[in-house]
Fold this protein.
Amino acid sequence: MCPLCGWDVLVSYLICGTLHSVDQYLNIKLTDISVTDPEKYPHMLSVKNCFIRGSVVRYVQLPADEVDTQLLQDAARKEALQQKQ
Amino acid sequence: TSTSETSCCVSGTVAIVTSDGRMIVGTLKGFDQTINLILDESHERVFSSSQGVEQVVLGLYIVRGDNVAVIGEIDEDTDSSLDLGNIRAEPLNSIVH
């Protein structure tokens, strides 16, 4: 997961920010966050950095051009094979 | 396995968004692996589309990790400049799985 740190991500179509770190539970730490609709969601106006519990995340959107999907697929396949053994 | 955890936020002012869509602001005194939280001097910020933000004093709280969605680090300067009485917003929805 660390290769993705530093990229801008959008969580559940609501919170956008720079991916700081991720842990084993897929908890996400974002820095410099912004909300997609600040008028509808002014709740986080004074928050710059946040921690998002992995269990509540449905989607994480990554920048399409920055991610090598082939590399990710291969790495995921290798990981799955290792887990089986 | 790395832990991102809330290493920055302890003893700072945080804004917690709960899974039922509430917002609680307080001082984060402690937490554990399941994100159970201890919040001191906490209050709930109740948002409404018809009136300004209402702040309900809660005091010392333990919030069970299952119910925590987001922990936000509050920037004190930005927060004190907010005119809560003039903010109108629909309350947040509950987390739907």
